[in-house]
Amino acid sequence: MNVNLYDVISSVGNKTEKSVSISDMNVEYLGESISISGKQPFTLIIECVAKDIVEIEADTIVHTIRSCSRCLSDVETDYTISVNRRINVSTGEAYIDDTSETDEISYIEDCNLDIDKLIMDELFTVLPMTVLCKEDCKGICKVCGANLNKITCDCDQTVPDPRMAVFSDIFKQLDT
Length: 176
Prior knowledge:
Layout: E1 2-4, H1 6-9, E2 15-20, E3 25-29, E4 32-38, E5 42-50, E6 53-67, E7 74-88, E8 93-96, E9 98-104, E10 108-109, E11 112-114, H2 115-126, H3 165-175
Antiparallel strand pairs: 1-11, 2-5, 3-4, 4-6, 5-6, 6-7, 7-8, 8-9, 10-11
């Protein structure tokens, strides 16, 4: 969803509130495919605070479906996203903490604010690198690939000491 900022930046002090929502989408994050949807529409507040500079505020909840880092089962998680940004629309830069530091942005193009990209930008700052289906997830069997949370397999789970690999090779040569 896009919001045109032209009317807001036409005069300092202009302020608008819009009810918006994010699109359902699948995104790649650190090599993982994540399904994302908005829980409900939310209010986006945009105010022109100086020439070509707007403040954007919003609070929403984003629902994600990710894969467990150990067993690859689906894990559903909600994240609260709070947006509070000051942006120079003409240069496409967001101010960080004060006006001396800026960061390039990708969610404003030709005075159009892309809501989905803005929320994704904020979401990627709060997403943990890994997620578990439960704290004591057993993962998958390294031999047969079975989900060890659901079944137990009879595969040999011993991991040989890599320092002893040379001796293992010698014994294999003696067996032949």
